[in-house]
Amino acid sequence: MKREKIKLRKSYSISRQFPTKIAREINKTDNAEMLITPEKEGRDHLTAKVRYALTYAYEKHRHEFDWFLKCDDDTYVIMENLRHMLASTDHNKPSYMGFHMKLLVKNGYMSGGGGYVISSRALRDVVRIGFKNGFCLLDGGNEDVEIGKCLQASGAQVLSTLDMSGEETFHAVSLFEHLTANPETFWLKNYAWNKHSMGQMCCSRYSVTYHYVRPDEMYIFHHLLYHTEVLGILRPPVPDKIFDLQPVNP
After folding, report:
1. Which residues cross the membrane (predicted)?
2. Which stretches of 9-145 are assigned E, i.e. beta strand?
3. What is the pLDDT of residues 220-236, one digit of tens each?
4. Do residues 144 and 97 lie in contact, with contact meaning Cβ atoms separated by under 8 Å?
């Protein structure tokens, strides 16, 4: 698949700012829209809101995009790295990927805050099989766990997002925590599928997402990544192969 076919040009945020029974799209910019859902507001209802949003994306936009990204509003996404990661991956196969958690679901599930990417085929299957056959809760529970249950039941394959050095590219907690946590005592070690998710080996130089980024920190991340160079430090050449995206066996 040619890289230019990757479609990630439109983004959505989900909210319930107006009392309405019908979801609506409100144009905010040329490339962003807001989806107003009829679900109750609050963290306790994230499962219902994300189910609604994924169903809406499938029904209204399934022919427009190859991949669908779900993340929180405090998730910083490096789109260039994500595009490169997906460029050679077949969106016609049911798959999804993110920061891989190992509990509660046989094949594991992807951290909601770290963000997860669903192929267009997996989106089709989770809506038509997972959601319609009750493989996960309609509401309540933990959104990422419940969506993971429905994706697994509908046949979606988990793909590894480790880079070729074995380092994580999606990050479930703050960058500071990932970097400074003691791997022996940090709570994430009991959840993370892969062992190199904390300490100095936590993070790939080709990372895709960072979680728990405050609004003011978004500006800092962006400036350091896109407008800062360190004189005297030569960047290594980009490897021929950065990501492998092999299926993960439970």
Report:
1. none
2. 11-15, 24-27, 32-36, 67-70, 76-77, 95-98, 100-101, 109-110, 116-119
3. 999 999 998 888 887 77
4. no
